[in-house]
Amino acid sequence: MKKRALHYTGTINANRLNNAPLPSEKELKKEGRGHMSSVYETTNNLSLVRWLDNKCVTLISSYLGTEPVDNVKRYDKSLKKHIEVARPAIVKEYNAKMGGVDLLDMMSTLYKRLMKSRRWYMYIFFHMLTVSLVNSWFLYKRSCKSLGTKPMTMEIFQSQVAECLKKAGKPARGRPSSASPPVRKKTVVVPLPVQDVRYDKIDHLPDVVGTRGRCRLCPKGYSQIRCSKCGVYLCIVTGKETRNCFTAFHKL
Ligand SMILES: [Zn+2]
Ligand SMILES: [Zn+2]
Question: Which residues cross the membrane (predicted)?
Answer without folding.
Answer: 120-140
